[in-house]
Predict the structure.
Amino acid sequence: MAFKRILVPIDFSSCSLEAYRVAVSLARSEAATLYLLHVIDRRALEAAREIGLTAEEIDEKPLHAKARRRLREFLANEPDLPSDRKIVTGLPFQEIVQATRQEQIDLIVMGRYGGGGELEKIFFGSTAEKVVRIAPCAVLSIPLAPESRRRP
């Protein structure tokens, strides 16, 4: 099975950064194109509205700008790697699967644990679990690197 189009969902957690490192290595070995996707979680924005934050305090534009800047920095470190990046707002697992279909992705490389809270994982499962269940392609789930699991 050849992987020519690899998607990496990045939420900037330690685990997603480890997934990015693995995806870059795979993309290089497979001569693949790397697609980076950052999803601004719509549920977090809705929760902020519910607790009374103003529109200025939860403006998506600065979130998009910050994510765009960080993704550009990632890709600047890999100038010879064919790549693309996308930032969207929505439910992470849905946006990941939608991007997979739109871009005809062969492989999703994602962190096993993201930036979501533990309570959310207990009641709803992790984003990685949901993606594995419904993705139309192979999914490689990356745990934290061993040195990241150690506590000081």
